[in-house]
Amino acid sequence: MTTFDYVMVGKAIRNKRKEKRLRIEELADENIFPLLHLSFSFFFLTKLLVPLNHWG
After folding, report:
1. Out of the domains of life, which is the source (predicted)?
2. Domain positions in the chain
3. Chain centroid to CA 36
4. Predicted confidence (pLDDT) per residue in 10-30, tens digit
């Protein structure tokens, strides 16, 4: 009977860890796209503005 309890506890712990990992992945997916947008915007602005400063 105690072996069954240990198995159930182990499954519960694994499920909690899985749920936590999935929540973290969902939050990361939601937050990474604005960061990517900002980094690409910064990259393109610097590539466009630096040559303009050299011409003027």
Report:
1. Bacteria
2. 11-56
3. 11
4. 899 999 999 998 888 887 777
